Amino acid sequence: MTSLDPALDVLDKDGVRLTVEDAVATVTLTCPDKRNAQSPAMWRALTEAGRMLPGSVRVVVLRGEGKSFSAGLDRQAFTPEGFDGEPSFLDLARGSDAELDAVIAEYQEAFTWWRRNDVVSIAAVQGHAIGAGFQLALACDLRVAAQDAQFAMRETSLGLVPDLTGTHPLVTAVGYARALEICATGRFVHADEAERIGLANLVVPLEDLDAAARDLAAALLAAPRDAVIETKALLRGAPGRTYEDQRVAERAAQARRLRDLAGLAD
User: Fold this and answer.
1) Of 231, 265, 261, which Cα lies nearest the Cα of 249?
2) Cα–Cα distance between 16 and 27 in angstroms, integer?
3) Which end of the chain is more exposed for a tag (fewer CB within 10 A), N or C?
4) Residue 20: which H helix or E strand, with range?
5) Are 127 and 69 in contact (CB under 8 A)?
6) Cα atoms found within 13 Å of the Cα of residue 45, Cβ hemisphere only
7) Contact 121, 179 (CB under 8 A)
8) Beta partners for residue 89, in sequence order
């Protein structure tokens, strides 16, 4: 794809629509009648959306149609019949450890690409972000929340664990003790608390949510792309480095930027 028309629809399937306009892509969950409840088919579509992003995209906005961002996993997954054409979760539980691990790893791919270094992702969250919905919001780099937003990690309350990559960014955002309390109790974190503890970067009135996400996207596009990519990589790697290792990483990144600006890059 060499050129992009305004608001070009790139993908629209299984409750996921990907639209691209210049350097901004919008991924929309399109099952408002089910409060954007998630299914394996939706996860595969989300994975496909990530693979289909044009190279020109710098910012990805994730949003949900209707009153809720995503109310979590579609409960049909826990019925004996499951989803049409899919093994039920009960069937999966009867498989070997290796088979179950492979299936969960495939599901997780829908949640991993949002943090890759060449894009910055923004979740625009209204209403409920529960379980898998909370983890999908956590998969993004940044979160803008409407005043009615409510986050909850309900997996533990159902006898399960959060397994869609949400535990790492949750601990990173709020710390171990707060993350444990949120997960183990399954309580709701309302928008004002989410902003206070670092789960949300910004809270706005519901009617301003889309505009706030667009404004944030525009602000992110103001800086040169390569500088943002290098900065994101530095920040993402910081928790796994010592202070001295981070200093070394900063120097190496800055050397690359200076050489590039001077036209001396390899």
Assistant:
1) 231
2) 7
3) C
4) strand 16-21
5) yes
6) 18
7) no
8) none
* Beta sheet of 189-190, edge-to-edge order: 128-130, 150-152, 189-190
Give the pair of three-digit tokens for residue 154.
């309900």
- The DSSP output letter for 38 is B
The set of residues, in sequence order, having a beta carbon less than 8 Å from that of 136 and lying 6+ positions away, is 38, 46, 62, 69, 70, 110, 111, 123, 129, 164
φ, ψ for residue 200, nearest 5 deg: -115, 135
Q: What are 11-34's pLDDT values in tens digits?
A: 999 999 999 999 999 999 999 999
Distances (CA, A) of 62 to 43, 125, 205: 14, 8, 18
> How many angstroms separate the CA atoms of 215 and 61, rounded?
11
Residue with tokens 């020109």: 56
Closest CA to 41 of 94, 106, 91, 125: 106
Q: How much is the pTM? A: 0.93
| CA dihedral (42, 210, 130, 140) positive or negative | positive
Q: For residue 73, what is the DSSP state? A: B
CB 145 within 8 A of CB 122: no
- Sign of the C-alpha dihedral computed for residues 198, 204, 205 and 208 taken in this order: negative
Q: Where are the alpha helices (DSSP H) in 52-175?
A: 89-93, 97-112, 132-139, 167-174
SS3 label, residue 79: coil
CA distance to 90, 172, 190, per residue, from 153 (Å) = 21, 16, 12
For 90, the token pair is: 């009960």
